[in-house]
Amino acid sequence: MNGLNLGERFIRWAARDDSIYSVIQIGSRVRGEGEPGAADDYSDWDFQVISSAPDSLERRELYCDELDEPLAFAVRGGRLGTAKKVTALFAEGELDIVIIPLAQFHEVRKQVSAGTHPGVPPIMKALEDLSSVLLGGYQILKGTPEVDALFHFVATEIPPPRLSDAAIRQIGEGFICDYVSTAHKIARGEFLAAQRWLHHHLAETNFSLAHELRRRANLPSFPDARRVETLFDETARSALEIRAIPTSDSLGAALQKSRESCITLMRALVGDTWAWPSLPSSLSGK
């Protein structure tokens, strides 16, 4: 292995592979020591790869030949429209690669060069998603002037997607619906389903609202509840916690805490333009 770590070996492989048009490193390993979300001993290696042979990067055998035998290998949906994400787990760490087909890159670049991208919703969505990824930093390790120009444009000119007040109010309405559904599950004794609903819907909503609140305050924040323990103060972190075992009392207490957190976040975001309704007992599970 010549003493190279997993990321270095992948970069060396990509540099000599003619089908790999460009390699852009993203994620924690491009952040400086001490910066929010900087790499630690558990960090993976994140890359965006533009390839003229994207299907080849989805083959497990290729990684066996070039790197090592993966302990686990998964191909799943990624960002940038039809792009896919490969996750390869090795004994020494994890490699995450978002695969961008070269033809797709050229189409996006053409639309951006012509200034027609705002009128093409799928391309604008892809650019906004990419912007949110690049917000944490990026480094082009293999590229061309066209790649440099597009990524610089996205990083400096395309704002990451944000939630409007109207969207936040709609999220709040959805929370109410999920709250009632969870309360009904608890009332009928579907404790595991209620536990899942708490985490899958209610907690996710509060995480999203807290993330938006910090972004509006220009504070460091990451989606998907990442780095909450290190970036949020004790009060904000505690409000997002869910501690519930599958019993009526425990789930009920967690449900009410989740509701209170949602109300607090909604008030901070949209003020008195949204309010929790007075629910009849038939809808609250009581």
Secondary structure: elements and pairs:
Layout: H1 6-16, E1 20-26, E2 45-51, H2 60-66, E3 72-77, E4 84-90, E5 93-101, H3 102-114, H4 121-134, E6 138-142, H5 145-157, H6 165-187, H7 191-216, H8 228-231, H9 234-240, H10 248-270, H11 281-284
Parallel strand pairs: 2-5
Antiparallel strand pairs: 1-2, 1-6, 3-4, 4-5
Helix pairs in contact: 4-5, 6-7, 6-10, 7-10
3D architecture notes:
The longest helix has 26 residues, at 191-216. The protein has a six-stranded mixed beta sheet. The chain has helices at residues 6-16, 60-66, 102-114, 121-134, 145-157, 165-187, 191-216, 228-231, 234-240, 248-270, 281-284, and strands at 20-26, 45-51, 72-77, 84-90, 93-101, 138-142. It has 286 residues and is of the alpha+beta class. The model has no long low-confidence stretch (mean pLDDT 93). β4 and β5 (93-101) form a beta hairpin.
